[in-house]
Design goal:
The complex is a heterodimer of chains A (874) and B (112). In chain A, strands 17, 18, 19, 20, 21, 22 and 23 form a seven-stranded mixed beta sheet that branches. Chain A starts with 11 loop residues before the first helix and ends with a helix. In chain A, strand 17 and strand 18 form a beta hairpin. Chain A is of the alpha+beta class. Chain A is built from 28 helices and 25 strands. Chain B has a single domain (8-111), classed as Winged helix-like DNA-binding domain superfamily/Winged helix DNA-binding domain (Arc Repressor Mutant, subunit A, Orthogonal Bundle). Chain B is built from four helices and two strands; from the N terminus they run αααββα. In chain B, helix 1 packs across helix 3. The radius of gyration of chain B is 18 Å and the shape is elongated. The chains are: A alpha+beta (874), B alpha+beta (112).
Chain lengths: 874, 112
Amino acid sequence: MIESKHIVPPQWPLKLLRFFVKKRYLEEIEGDMEELFYDNVEQVSYRKARRIYTWEMVKLLRPILIKNLEVLEKINQYAMFKNYFKISIRGLVKNPLNSFINVFGLSAAIGICVFAYAFARWTYSTDQFHEHKNEVYLITFSANRDGTAQQFGITPRPLGEMLRGDFAQIKKVCRVEDRNVVMKYKDNVFHERVRYTDPEFLEMFTFPLKWGVSKSLSDVNSIILSEEMSIKYFGDENPVGQDIIMIFAKDRTKAFKVAGVAKKFPDAHTIDFNFLINIENFRTSEPNYDFHDWNTFVSATLVQVNNSSDLKTIEHGMGKYKKFQNEAAQPDWALSSFTFEPLATLHQRAGDIRDDISHSSGDNYKTIVYLIVLALFILALACFNYINIAIATAAKRLKEIGLRKTIGATRGLVIVQFLSENLVITSFALIIGLILGYTIFIPGFEQMWHFSMEFKLNDPNLWIYLPAILVFTSIASGIYPSLYISRFQVVGILKGSVKFGQKNPVTKIFLCMQLIFACIFITIASMFTLNTDYMAERSWGYNHDETLYANVPDYASYEELHALMAQDPEVLSISGSTHHLGKSNTTAVLHFPDRELEVDQLSVDAKYFETMGLQLKEGRSFNDHEGSDKHAVVVNELLVKNMSRLLSGGKNAVGQHFTIDSTQYEVIGVTKDFHSYSFAKKIKPTIFRVADKADYRYLSMKVRPGSEVKAFRKLQAKWAQLFPQIPFEGAHQEDTWVGYFEANRIYGIVWRVFTFIAVSLASLGLYGLITLNVAGRVKEFSIRKILGAGIQSIAASITNQYTILFVIALILGAPAGYVLTKLLFEYSFPYHMPVGISCSIIAMVILILILFTTVFTQVRKVSKANPVDGLKVE
Amino acid sequence: MKKTKLGEFEELVLLTVAALQRDAYGVEIKRELEDRLKERLSVGSIQSALKRMEEKGFLTSEFGEATQKRGGKRKRIYATTSHAHKVLAEMKEIRAGLWSAMPKLAYELKLI
């Protein structure tokens, strides 16, 4: 039994009570609770009594007993703000059209702001999930190619091993190298890209495993899969322990045991993998792979250091490697310095690093800028609408303001009133905008690009960002009207001598700006739309319609496939090559006596030009004899243009000489320029060389027009017949750019959506203003009608007011649209439709149509109305 | 009748206050009602009903004695106003009227 003086009610519920409950009720309730508690102690156990006491306390927190409301009520402003709130709600309900224009416009703009936020957040979160993102560095080097220093993401093969041995400051090293293999599990056979790496890979990068252990990568017989690949081969089951067979080459295969499956990668990443195996496997897959060859490169070498200040020492110590490298390597790869790129910012820098393993997200950063500009534009449009309508309807509020001022409201208070009204409207818009962004803009964009921005509503930064938008928008849209309206003197207002709202020049300026914005938007969107069609028609510089290609593993298979396909009468020409247009190339450095040029290089056979439809401008193509033209090259026009400054004798490109890797080559022909990759990439100076037969990797063929589909099916069938073990890899040449055309189409859609919003905002604003204007002139129109005015004259008197405005907007908007479109396209696309005035004309026509439609709706209303009703108003 | 707005629970509390007279304070009201209704009531529900009715003008209150059991805190003794009596009487009348109307109804129903 507990002694009675120790029997006390628990203390914290009492504190809760004292904090929340009104002071004047405290004494009584506390007393009641205590009395009850001691009653309970006599009847039930001490603990139960305490429990009852606590629970009762919690149940006491009822609205009528809680104090904070009482505090608010005591403040004078509470009643005032309550009144403001009531007035704004009434205002919203009373003018549904104006409210709709305001709320719709602001919510669309806020929706876009939310979308821009989500996109920026996503972009900035790229690769940030790696725990060691600030300790892991990619080793890059600078080499002087083509006269300028360039940064490369690849590294000489022995570097990783040497670093590991030479520097104690380096905690971990991993090399990364990718290869294409054929993967086989039971009857499923696919071409796959496999990442060879050191076991440290999974410790340096944070890729948690769903199943298995990451340590197992140190076993050369283990393989780790991405989740996607695990599902592709094994479905939803746990594949750990299963055997999967990798076919490196025709006669070299190896079985790997699945040792782990990575969890799904976060969407915002630039480095990942499909399959990971130990780098030692090169000893099996490529018996002559030399780990100590300074002249060849791995895709990446990454190091992890404890302290970023160690980097200086390491960089200094790496000087000796330069010597190794520069002695062993061809002079084209002479490197000048090593640098370290932290993983945390690699995705931003990737665009400037050549041959980097991470994909660049530089375009995304560009997109953020565009999105911010767009969001601000749309926000401005919505704010202009709000301001215009507020000013135009101010006349209706004059009496209210006069009265408020009479009973003591200062100008400041009237301003506060209008701003708080604005805050209410903007809050509505914020909620709708958030819903719009969350349910329409973001998912729509994600669906088009097939990715997920991982946008979550519980993101803390979002809840800083949204109130910031709320305050910014309500002040931006509300400050001018509130200053303007609060300015008027009471006496003037109440006497009725103040007339304003209709003829405010600021309204006109804002409307004019809206029209200019709309004009710019329409110009850009129509340019994007027209450009998509234009680019679809643009020549690729070679014949992409009637050509097909297939990847071949080696020359023997090329020969077999060639023999089978050559019998087909539909096939006009077949050729073999090491590289292929739109698929692959290598680079080379051309040495001239006084300088170097870096070029793209494709190794092909003699028939390649005919097969692919590349047009020769001068000279000849390669001879079709074994071993001929070993030192001859065919170049493209662009290279000739770049060379012309260096040409020693004569203007003729054919017959020129230069050296590559200290071998002399002669130019024997010039092709017209062509697009190796999509129109999104600039044409590069390119050379063709004769391919060594042993290196054939592609079979390309030209077929009779109209028989492409049939020929492609036949190609696949023959392949399956020849190589049942290896899945077919190949396509119609025209499909190599699918991604490019798809992206173009999406740009078009995105811009049309923005334009739609911008144009609807501008036209809603126009509609609102004209409606208000007409409503204010009901009497005038009624008298005109009674005196015999026709529809035309009424229409003219409405339109006249806006004609000058429109003319000014178009005079300013059309050239602005033209210039901005030109800038945008020249900045973003190397090749595009020439920017002409057609898009500006489209924009002008659309805007004029909008004006007439808007005026027409009002004229119709006026013409149908009975003038007697109009005159009876008041 | 329109403006009084007396809920069922409030009416019960009001009647209890009227019945208890000088003893009408929180714990006693709760105890009495619990006995009569044969169910547990929370302090919160009683207190909020009392405060609401005080605001509506059915009740007045003043501080009473303090006991040691209450940790030296005073009771608040509630008393009904004449307005409350009028409303309660009205309610009773309405109910009585309805009750007196009921047997007739029942009788008629039986005939069918």
